[in-house]
Amino acid sequence: MSQVAYLPAGKREQTKVQNRQAILDAAREVFGELGYEAATVRDIIRRTGLAAGTFYNYYRSKEEVFAALADDGARRFAPILKALRNKGGPLDGFVREAIVAYFEFMADEHVSWMARRPAGEAQPHIQGETPEMAAVFNEVKDALEHAITEGRGPLGDTEYMTAACIGVAREVCDKMLMRRPIDTAAAADFTVEMILGGLRGLPGAKC
Q1: Contact status, residue 140 vs residue 98, Cβ threshold 8 Å
Q2: What is the rounded CA–CA span in Å between residue 116 and residue 35?
Q3: Please, which residues have CB within 8 angstroms of residue 75's CB and are 6 or more apart in sequence?
Q4: What is the structure's pLDDT at 90?
Q5: How crowded is the C-beta side of 113, counted as CA atoms within 13 Å?
Q6: Whole-angstrom distance, CA of residue 89 vs CA of residue 181
Q7: d(CA 3, CA 119)
Q8: Cα–Cα distance measured from residue 183 to residue 186, given in angstroms and rounded to the nearest whole number
């Protein structure tokens, strides 16, 4: 008679969640200690205590693990952005609060590994867009469209505007995280002025 034990569906799902979290936690530690470039899948597996086969049930490479870390951060940042958007008020106030919140979130998110990476190591970039990243994009786009509807925002293609705002913020944030010490205030001030300056240069801008 087979000795294979079958876990109840609820237990299996709980185990999957725990295994994924163990891999992400281990990756943060390994990327922090060794740097992203030097780290290997084997390093991550050793830190989890899981079997190699278990790891590959979830991720095929360290690039996929890094993408999962980015997704996890985007999933948790989207509600913060939504709360800021729901406060209402002028567009420039939303932009400033959103940028400050993003930079502080990223600094806190990666303080256990990103800040300990080798100085000057380039920030890896995620290819494509996930639902979590799309949620962040849509929150910014909705804020711009709402401002335009109320006559408080610049006229133009809101998808282009959103992409430009997020692109500037992401690139400056990458450089901020490469520096020691990390200065979120200076990075945020610079980024806010860049983004607002660009928006104010568009037709019909009142932000």
Answers
A1: yes
A2: 8
A3: 132, 135
A4: 87
A5: 17
A6: 33
A7: 52
A8: 6
Please identify which residue in the block is written with the tokens 């607002």.
196
d(CA 42, CA 6): 28
> Over the stretch 138-193, which tens digit does the pLDDT of each residue have?
999 999 999 888 888 888 899 999 999 999 999 999 889 888 888 999 999 999 99
CB within 8 Å of 94: residues ≥ 6 apart = 84, 85, 87, 143, 147
Tell me the pLDDT tens digit for each residue of 65-104.
Answer: 999 988 888 999 999 999 998 887 888 999 999 999 999 9
Let me know the angle formed at the C-alpha of 72 by 66 and 77, rounded to the nearest 5 degrees: 125
**Percent of the chain surpassing pLDDT 70:** 86
d(Cα 141, Cα 202) in Å, to the nearest integer? 16
Peptide bond into 154 cis (omega under 30): no
Ordered DSSP codes for 105-144: HHHHHTTTTTTTSPTTPPPP---S--HHHHHHHHHHHHHH
CA-based nearest residue to 174, from 118, 124, 109, 139: 124
